[in-house]
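Shipment paperwork, digital attachment
Item: protein structure file
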Amino acid sequence: MQVSSYLKLSVAVALATITLKTGAWWLTGSVGLLSDALESLVNLAGAIFALMMVTVAAQPPDDDHPYGHHKAEYFSSGFEGVMILVAALAIIAAAVQRLFAPQPLEQLGLGLVLSVVSSAMNGALAWAMLRKAREHRSMALEGDARHLFTDVWTSVGVVVGLLAVQASGWLWLDPVIAIAVAANIAREGVMLVWKSAEGLMDQALEPEVRAEIERTLDGFRHQAIRFDHVATRRAGARRFVDLHMHMPAGWTLGRAAAVRTSVEQALMAAVPGLRASIQLLPMDVEAHFGDPRDPL
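Attachment content:
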């Protein structure tokens, strides 16, 4: 199943969970269950926006975007993080109002059953989506999956709290649970926004991937060839490495190009999704960076 197919499934599941959780809130009058339903609305908005951004990211390079559109996925993650924070504020507002005006809960048993069913659906989908996100290095899919996991833990907390309300009769526990839920999902929202910002700032590849690149280059290093100025970055699912390869000045262009092709192919075979750009230089020539005349 493709990344876009998982996001379409996420939209469908979000619609189903909204129905179930809204029904649970309507039956019980619990502000905790209301907070759970509001988070599912955020799930729906996030899944729809993620699907849009994945579609954009899959478009081929063009004249205006010669390196592709892969970073569009980071906008999805950032948008979902902001939506989570908005939902958290709405939950807190409703909970504070209920804290000062407690209300008895009704038909709690059926409401909790509906909440548990919706959580099971979210949990199964989130687990499958996270596996797919790691396989395809999709930030949009990972963001949606992690939000669904947050939704699951939110629902677990709400259910446990409402059982405590039923056992103790302490109605103030319901809004307190809702505020705790809001704090938890706000933390997740901040993390998603932060990861999105890091991705947009051309973050380097993961340490283990950089180590694999170095191991691959070690296979070509000897007295006649050396590498330097190795720089990596990632954009959505795409990975990039730029480097300089030094070789004897007496080599023919054809020989040098053949070696470079071998290095590029080895790098791309070692690191899936990698695009390598290698600049050829004679052994006695150095490239200089940080020139004071450079305005950047």
